[in-house]
Specification:
The complex is a heterodimer. Chain A is an alpha+beta fold. Chain A has helices at about 20-30, 55-70, and strands spanning about 1-10, 40-50, 75-80.
Chain lengths: ~80, ~230
């Protein structure tokens, strides 16, 4: 089976996110005054061959732990759908 | 005579400076390509600065899986001396040879200027030519230089005397925790620093404050070359 995996990598809560702060400041400069906190992360999409959705997710989590996210500074979320 | 291997990744750009710096102090040096699997008999490994693999994903994240890094891991685990400069420091953190991570500078600006740093640990293969407390003016050139780690790791680094180099208060160019500019592993044989000593080696370059990192490799003074 082929699955599409969506990985969302975000800076760990509590870690200073200067990119988010800069975007927040730029939005304020554009008069979007309703904006509070902004955080900037990264989205990665993969297609994965696996026998089951659970297997695809487990493999994707291994990919995150080893390469796609840095466990020291980032958190990730994995969503899997049938491709 | 000591032999230094300078590891070249695609995107390394301080490799020639590092080679010249080593040769300048009388250390034999050679390049090792990232696809190589041996270090050519080197006693010391330098991971030079640059933008390995274009800093894709995260600085150092892809370089750490280069074939040569297995040899570097084995060298480090056997107690061999390893110095990561700038991008090399980022690679050592990604490879878990050093704790923590180097993330985007706090003001998002690429910091490229001389900064004042203080040598805090002299019992390493790269700082034994200095005196503790020596203040060095060294250039930095990085966008991702803010050292970050969880509070327990930072506390351990402080308690174990593993902060090798620290930005002098008020001169921190990136917002790093505890003004950290360089650290070492628990054994002290693996050192990572953000500033570039290889750029301030000769009077013609305007400064010679970086010289000690390279003369230290000669093992001329206290501190043994593991």
């Amino acid at each position: 089976m082929s699955y599409r995996v969506h990985v969302r990598v975000m800076p760990r809560a509590g870690l200073l996110d200067p990119q988010g702060q800069a975007v927040s400041g730029a939005l304020a400069a554009l008069s979007f005054r309703e904006v509070g906190t902004v955080r900037v992360g990264r989205a990665i999409e993969l297609t994965v061959q696996a026998d089951s959705k659970d297997e695809a997710e487990a493999r994707a989590r291994q990919m995150c732990d080893r390469l796609l996210a840095n466990p020291v500074t980032e958190d990730y979320q994995v969503e899997v759908e049938e491709a | 005579m000591r032999t230094v291997a300078i590891i070249r990744f695609p995107g390394s750009n301080c490799d020639e400076d590092s080679l010249r710096a080593a040769e300048f102090v009388g250390v034999r040096a050679h390049y090792v390509w990232h696809r190589d699997t041996t270090l050519g008999g080197a006693d010391i490994v330098i991971l030079p600065g640059g933008f390995s693999y274009g800093d894709y994903l995260r600085s150092g994240a892809i370089a750490r899986f280069s074939p040569v890094m297995e040899a570097v891991q084995a060298h480090a685990q056997a107690g061999g001396a390893v110095l990561g400069i700038c991008n090399g420091f980022q690679i050592l953190c990604e490879a878990h040879l050093l704790p923590g991570a180097l993330v985007r500078n706090d003001r998002l600006r690429f910091a490229s200027r001389p900064v004042r740093t203080r040598v805090e640990r002299t019992t390493t293969n790269f700082t034994n030519a200095y005196q503790a407390g020596d203040v060095l003016t060294l250039p930095v050139a990085h966008g991702d230089g803010r050292f970050a780690a969880d509070p327990a790791t930072i506390a351990a680094l402080e308690a174990e005397g593993r902060i090798v180099l620290r930005y002098v208060e008020g001169t921190n160019p990136n917002g790093s925790e505890h003004d950290i500019a360089g650290i070492c592993n628990a054994a002290g044989n693996v050192v990572g620093i953000m500033p570039h000593p290889e750029r301030v080696m000769e009077p013609v370059l305007g400064q010679v404050d970086g010289l000690g990192f390279f003369t230290s490799m000669m093992g001329r003074t206290a501190g043994s070359l593991a």
